[in-house]
Amino acid sequence: MRQHSRHWRSLAFRLYSGPVVDAINSQVAGSLGDQEFDLIWVDKGVYLYKETIIQLRGVTKRLVHFTLDTAFYQNNSRHFRRSLPHYDLAVTTKSFELEKYARLTQRERILLVTQGFARAIHLPRFEHGEKRREAVFVGLWEPDRERCVKILLDGGIPVRLGGYKWDRFLRKWGGHPLLAFEGNAVFGDAYATILSQSWVGLGLMSKRFPERHTTRTFEIPACGTILATERTADTTEYFSNNEALFFRDYQQLALRLKSLFASATDAELVALAEAGRQRVVRDGRDYATILSDTLSHPRLQVGMEQE
Length: 307
Description:
Strand content: 15-25%
Low-confidence stretches: none
CATH topology of the largest domain: Rossmann fold
Largest sheet: 6 strands, parallel
CATH superfamily of the largest domain: Glycogen Phosphorylase B
CATH architecture of the largest domain: 3-Layer(aba) Sandwich
Structural class: alpha/beta
Radius of gyration: 22 Å
């Protein structure tokens, strides 16, 4: 994509059209040669034309689509909608999109999985005595997330932030004694380190679509940090009250954190954080287990007869 101008790359990102998208499809189709495959895995195939997917379909026994993102809100691609019926299995993490998938393909071809964490990255990195009594959030700025941070700061809660598009907020609040900012690009080990050193991680969900859980839902407890999360149909299924800190609004969250940081002993904080970590490990919320379970799905067994 880099050999194309910024204009054409922007057109591809926004409208999924233009010479960049043509080039992607040509490259994918041209890489097939005379090969035949047991399985082809398409990750977030928003740029692939229906005709390209049909070409893939013709050289593989099984064709699977996987995405951690929304497919019908952001990332809403006409190419994906047209090609969806040609996949043996479409894997999504978005329970609120299941009906939209079902309008375009058979229900038995849809698999709902959860977001997850990476075992080699998201793990505890600090002794309990080194952890900070603060709330941490790393992620893209959104108006609702800003509102949460403001309410916590007004409530006397130390907050550590990282992520993109917080610039305008920081121009006003950057000098606040309870606010620390770790920078825009906080990924991988740096991300896990920041999560791990704080006692509470904010599992804030996007309000751009009806999100019910997020990657943070599992990354935070995997790092040995207490997950603070809204009550949703998903989060209350994945955790009990002894494994996460639930809240219904940000005022309640601020009060709960104020009480927790003021009166909870280290042993009590350890117990809650460890219970959350043990739950995500026990339930196999790591990506290696999720992908292994997906590949074991009956629809992906090569010995099956094609419909």
